[in-house]
Amino acid sequence: MSVRLTVDALAAERGMRAVFSDVSFAAVGGTLMRVTGANGAGKTTLLRILAGLGAAAAGCVEWSLDGSPLPSTSASIFVGHSNACHEALTVSENLAYAAALGGADATPGRIEHALAAFGVRPLARRRFGTLSQGQRKRASLARLLVAGPEDARAWLLDEPFVALDIDTQSQLAALIEARLGAGGLVVYTSHQTVPIRCAHAVEVAL
Amino acid sequence: MSLRRATAAVFRRELQLFARRKSDWANPLMFALIVCALFPFAVGSESERLRLIGIGVIFVAALLAAMLSLPRLFDEDARDGTLELLLMSPEPLAALLLARVAAISLVLGVALALLAPLFALFYALPMTVAGVLALTVAMAVPTLLLIGSIAAALLVSARGGAILTAVLVLPLTIPTLIFGAGAALRVLQGESAASELALEGAILLLALALCPPAAAAALRISTD
Amino acid sequence: MARSEQQSNERYGGRWFWRYASPSAFFAPAGRIETLCWVLAAVLAAIGLYLGFFVAPTDAQQGEAYRVIFIHVPAAWMAMVIYLAMAFWSLLGLWLGTRLSFMMSHALAPTGALMAVLSLWTGALWGRPTWGTYWVWDARLTSTLILFFLYVGYMALAAAFDDRRKGDRAAALIALVGAINVPIIYFSVKWWNTLHQGSSVRPGSSSMATIMLAAMLIMTFAFWAYSIAAAMHRLRTIIIEREGNAAWLRASVLGGKR
User: Fold this and answer.
1) Is residue A139 predicted with pLDDT exceeding 50?
2) Which chains lie within 8 Å of chain C at 3 or more CB pairs, if any?
3) Cα angle C128, C133, C136; round to 5
4) Which of A189, A202, B120, C98 gives B125 a disulfide partner, CB atoms 3.0 to 4.6 angstroms apart?
5) Sheet with strand A186-189: strands edge to edge
6) CA–CA separation, C32 vs C37, rounded Å?
7) Sequential DSSP letters for B169-187
């Protein structure tokens, strides 16, 4: 399974002001793409447009899986600044909800496996609101893995390393590497330089 | 298959949240109760007079209580980021929103419908009227929540919150108010309420068909 | 799903209807339409009011008080028509993403609300001598009141967004929702009115003399012309406000050439 992303002459506006314009690139599965730019350059805006959460002012974004076109919202999984977890629900309830909305069936085993990858397996039955900030971040990142290995969606990560300790940073980096190795596509923004080994790394400067 | 799973997940989550946070359903009910208890102080306590205004007061109180829970639809989701999960689901957004409104309607609609006969006692209304009132409230609450979901979706990213929701939503609920209260009034006058009930049901069906897609479009606009 | 203006431009760019889709292209024609309509409105209103107030005969039942219908009825019609026009431009805007369509909607709303208020006000003035009270819950008056609420909701929503693009689209959507609801509201209010025995006397219900009808029609055209002129004026103001930095605007407004 191979994901392909083509961006052509993309432009974005925020409150009637142009944020960026004429951004074009293409990427296939196995590519690690880092979006760089100063504050306000539109990194988050770009990621949201790629995810289908925002509308472009001009240009187009096309996703395809093995040659057949996909809608933006089904092609990717987006992890932004917020944790996307409800405080009154437990960690595993939150993950099951995210998985079901993403179209996957999250078995308890999968959820535990995903939590274990970030070292927060014992927190599965805790209410999300009772966790520390670092625990919250790790539990919410586990969302990337609940859909399982056959999930072909691209990862769109907006500042994923913020608020993570060094250990978790390298855990996440290793998971990204594994994902790339399995033919996945990862687009991310980051102010930190966390080393990620990758055969095919691309940088998009805004 | 995955559509059923997604809508079931949305529905279940909403019920879970109601179960964990009792204030989410208890406060609207208390609000309706208090509104119903206020009017006798304003108009006097003679049974004749109360019976005259009772149906209208109970109905409007139920609608207002349901309206006050509209911010619950999306505001918290927008804050904690779970709204993005809904927006990015490959399943049709309208279906997911319908599942969510259905869960809230189930809880609030049933609860307010069960309270309506109690309110009817306050206003010296006969039990036959109370029964019809329960039925029409049970239809009006989902109608209001469906229409209101459009406004709530639009206002996710705007200033003005609850007041603006009321300004946008309440005028649109006038038809369901007319037929819902009208049905109870017919029964009070000893006539058949069949046509009013049918029309109120028709409005609910129309809202079921039209509102979820509109709310989905609204949500895309305001989160864009 | 809705397109952006640029995407629509790529699609419809060469077509005849697209020529005036941009604010810059429509600014000057809007000015000419505005001037023409102000003149038309003044002339038609002068003729219509003269016919209505001085030439038309006194009504046998209602005396002189009926003459308010020459303002009341056209205002009520305009309140309805302007809402439809607003919904039309909103639909176009949501579909094509054209800025000018949203601006048209915004330009129409205050005039529509004014017409609704005018119709309610004159309705009250007419009601006092006829029904003996300023307000009755007559089906038409009630519907107009609800229409006024819808206008207010539209304007309040448009103003509630800091991001103008969102405000445009959100208000457009609520205008469409309102337009779908207007007939439902109208018929349910009529139903309610018969249930609760409304008044049977209505403005214009008695058979009308030809001269009255002529005066009414002329006044209606005057109201149309006024509404278009006011909307065009507001549209130009909105264009200046929103595109104030654009070079074409500076050249055409600040350069002294209108």
Assistant:
1) yes
2) A, B
3) 115
4) B120
5) A76-79, A154-158, A186-189, A32-36, A201-205
6) 9
7) HGGGGHHHHHHHHHHHHHH
Contact between residue C72 and residue C91 where contact means Cβ atoms under 8 Å apart: no
Q: Which of A45, A101, A130, A143 is the mutation pick for testing B, counting most B CBs within 10 A? A: A101
Taking the CA atoms of residue C171, residue C177, residue C179 and residue C182 in that order, the dihedral angle to the nearest 10 degrees is: -130
pLDDT at C257: 46
Q: Are A89 and A82 in contact (CB under 8 A)?
A: no
**Model pLDDT, residue C258:** 44
Q: Judge: C4–A14 Cβ closer than 8 Å, yes or no.
A: no
Q: Is the pLDDT of residue A21 over 50?
A: yes
Out of B159, B175, B185, closest to residue C188 by CB: B175
Share of chain C above pLDDT 70, in %: 91
Which domains are assigned to chain A?
3-205 (3.40.50.300)
Q: What is the pLDDT of residues B91-124, one digit of tens each?
A: 999 999 999 999 999 999 999 999 999 999 999 9
- CB atoms A15 and C242 under 8 Å: no
pLDDT at A24 exceeding the cut of 50: yes
> How would you class A121 by CB atoms within 10 Å of its CB: exposed for 0-12, middle for 13-18, buried for 19 or more?
middle
Shortest CB distance from B84 goes to which of A78, A86, A88? A78
Interface contacts A/B by beta carbons within 8 Å = 86
Q: Is A62 helix (H, G, I), strand (E, B) or coil?
A: strand
Q: Distance between CA A110 and CA A118 in Å, rounded? A: 13
ipTM: 0.90
In this prediction, residues B81-94 reach a mean pLDDT of 92
**Domains of chain B: total:** 1
Residue C58 DSSP one-character state: P
Residues 6+ apart with CB under 8 A from C206: C59, C60, C61, C62
With CA atoms as reference, report the closest residue to A76 among A130, A29, A134.
Answer: A29
Cα A176 from Cα A161, distance rounded (Å): 12
Domain locations along chain C: 27-57+211-258, 67-201
B30 C-beta neighbours (distance < 10 Å), count: 12
Which amino acid, A16? M
pLDDT greater than 70 at residue C200: no
Q: Is the pLDDT of residue C201 over 50?
A: no
Q: Which of B205, B136, B166, B167 is nearest to B69 (CA)?
A: B166
